[in-house]
Amino acid sequence: MSPEPTAKDPSTAPDQSHWSPRLWGTLLVLCAAMFLDALDVSMVGVALPSIGTELGLSTATLQWVVSGYILGYGGLLLLGGRAADLLGRRRVFLIALGVFALASVLGGLVDSGPLLIASRFIKGLSAAFTAPAGLSIITTTFAEGPVRNRALSIYTTCAATGFSMGLVLSGLLTEASWRLTMLLPAPIALIALLVGIKLIPHSAKEENHRGYDVPGAVTGTLSMLLLVFTVVQAPEAGWGSPRTLLSFLAVAVLLTLFVRIERRSPGPLIRLGVLRSGSQIRAQLGAMTFFGSYVSFQFLATLYLQSLLGWSALSMALAFLPAGALVALSSTKVGAVVDRFGTPRLIAVGFGLMVVGYALFLRINLDPVYAVVILPTMLLIGAACALVFPSLNIQATNGVDDDEQGMVSGLLNTSVQVGGAIFLAVVTAVVTANAPEGSSPQAVLDSFRPGLVVVTAIAVVGLLITLPGLRRSRSRDSVVVARSVPETAEDRVPVRD
């Protein structure tokens, strides 16, 4: 009997230019998990009004239907990424996907707010393990270069496609029952799990002779959980309130303790030396500003279209559809574009498109012509997402050893989620501060504009972060990824920005 295939088999094959059905199947299973993560986030946002009405939830409680997922996802990504490296990527991915399916069923059957919020937290927790494990399976299965770039462009495209389809599907399903929006991911996750058991290659666990970094795992997870919780609650509690300030102080103390532990640990949860790479830092900060600006824009655009203009959930979803369609149609092409131009150029161009798109949305009025006022922004944002998100994933994982792919994947996903939580809270605070005393539609519209200016400014910051990478790309310098042990010739890893 032939031995079980391992994650290294495909990547060590002499030719991966023509993917086998098994390799395609593996990629599709991983894409399904990414698709579900994005689908779940967008669907619940549209269904919130119906959930609140049926379960009798207050606005503050209803917020936690969304925030509970963000808390579990953003707070446990670092742990999820390292767990994939240490316990086996396949095992972590499949177990977490099964938990996601069960939590989806639970969320669709509950009849109380606390149970619904608990199911959302469990789903976020499971996604915190499937996301970095799935990304690291790809980066250790597909050889670095054009083959991996193509796989990552398809994989990351599924997030945007899932988000766009979630908006449309939720608009349709909520008409029947909000419970359908909770239940829909369950059968998809179950099918992906069954197929994944058969197709996903076994991966050897990292040889762990240095023990498990339990103190780092505890302090790192607690700091991320508290950070996300504090940011989510700050708009309601007040940014200058004693509660918020003390929470931020506690986060700073925990992060300081976490860094000290990681610097001394023989087997750290996060090897801090990886952050000495300029390419890695730009990828992490770029992910924060990219997702932070987009989720904030989507929040404001939803308020504008549904609350102010009175559009239905389905009409609003269709308004966003061109952006998602553009990303989906470009999924198989982005990898080749990355091969030709490199990630820094594509990220810079993408951020430039986002800046223009957000700035154009400042023209909104109380009687907009969709094709003239809204559609150009959607198309520009769609093009930006198609360029930026795959490029950030490629840049973050290039030049990283296989036994640290889960760690870097968890770090990147943490940047995405924390960036989204922080910048959304900031934009919400700006809009709230400018909220009119009266209720005239024009006054409400005017209160949105400062928030849109902040969204545009976040995208500008993302563009500025990318620019140094353009200079390094032109000079073709290599980047030293420092390790926590004395440097040897093997520690000098050339990384293409």
TrEMBL record:
A GO BP annotation: response to antibiotic
Pfam family for this entry, one: MFS_1
GO molecular function, one term: transmembrane transporter activity
Bilayer-spanning residue ranges: 27-48, 60-80, 92-110, 122-142, 154-174, 180-200, 212-232, 244-262, 283-305, 311-334, 346-364, 370-389, 410-431, 451-470
Entry GO terms, CC: plasma membrane
Domain Major facilitator superfamily (MFS) profile, first and last residues per copy: 26-474
CDD domains: MFS_MMR_MDR_like
This protein's record includes keyword Transport: yes
Name of the protein in question: MFS transporter
Lineage of source species: Bacteria, Bacillati, Actinomycetota, Actinomycetes, Kitasatosporales
